[in-house]
Amino acid sequence: MTSEPTISYYPDTDTMAIELRPWPGATGDANAVGGEDASEDLVIHYAADGEPWLWEIEHASRHPEHIAAALSQIRRRTAVAA
User: Fold this and answer.
1) What global pTM score does this model have?
2) Total count of domains within the chain
3) pLDDT tens, position by position, for the chain (82 residues)?
């Protein structure tokens, strides 16, 4: 497992998936896995530990603010871990 976030872009649908952290494995409540609409064209997916895991940005080319916010989350997590 890599500790680096993964950023994937799907040009056919203009969707970007930004992992805030690696998948934590089988920790926490499996029923907590899921996602929620957090904003227009933004779905935040949660891991079993209840913490955000991935941001899915639809129409990503129209939402640089979502991309910047996701990168800010990664930066914050990295600073706390250091």
Assistant:
1) 0.81
2) 1
3) 446 789 999 999 999 999 999 887 665 555 556 789 999 999 999 988 888 999 999 999 999 999 999 999 999 988 887 6
